[in-house]
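Exam revision sheet. Question 4 asks you to relate a sequence to its structure. Input first:
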Amino acid sequence: MIIWFSMANSLAWRLQQLLFGQKIERAKLKEPPIFIIGHWRSGTTLLHEYLVKDRRFAYPTTFQVFAPTHFLLTDWILPRLLWFIIPSKRPMDNMATGFERPQEDEFSLCAMGAPTPYERMAFPNNPPVYLEFLNMQDCKAEDQSAFEAALQWFVKAVSYKSGGRRLILKSPPHTGRIETLRRLFPNAKFIHICRDPLEVYSSTMRLWPALDRAQGFQMPKYSDEWLESYVFDCGRRMYEGYLEQSQLLPPEDLMEVRYEDLVEDPLGTLKAIYEACDLGDFSETQESMEAFIRTQKSYQPNKHRLDESKSQRVYQEWRVYFDRFGYALPQSDSISATASSGD
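Answer key, structure tokens:
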């Protein structure tokens, strides 16, 4: 079955290139993209869902990122025929899914064979690959060229499909790629969202096994110890890149928000984003934002609770994140962690 789908995808890619290749190559972005960044499970999807309610913006859909080689040909029919292959909820949480909903552009890179850490999901029991693309340090020249070419092509293809509307892109791996993204897309803006790192850790530990079971060609057999090491390593790499590269941005091109504020006061947080990033008149989209906010009132995120020793471990591994974004351990843990840190 996979072989037949691969052959069909390859044929559709050639046809799409024949019909649209030159148009995509000549396409110019009318405005630089807006990138939503932040660690996995920090609220990037929720923020993306809010912002794309503004019809002035466009975004990659789930179908587009999983069918980047032929969506210009097939997105009018295949989502209708294949609706049954998409679950109603994401495998790692309770958020709704659908071919038409916004999705991470990182999946498009994986589908096109570009170097991305997401390749690990295909064979989750193999060693991780392309982790250097979490901060763009020590990437091979040919790999970086392939990555950049694929990303630029996909962004232009989505822009062409949207009629030139400004794009809002969301991908956690972009968090440590600010320098590269600004070079590829001059004057791009970035909205970074952070969340209590204890929640981020717990939720990410659930994320990868859920995605690996759903997307991989193997059933994951790695240990909890290996997974924890992988989660910590990815977080460190991403934020080494973010903390260094975000300093290169002028203040008006970077907005930092907290997940807790977005949940507590979504309308106020969204207004602040529009003002800080000069995204246009918020009143033009406020009604659609409010309508979506009402649909989220019944959403219940997964609850996590870590014991004291695990909380201290997360604090030690990701202390830079705690300090940079103003988070602290619960009082009893915070005292123990501070005492054992040697500071």
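Marking note for examiners. The domain at 2-304 is CATH 3.40.50.300 (Rossmann fold).
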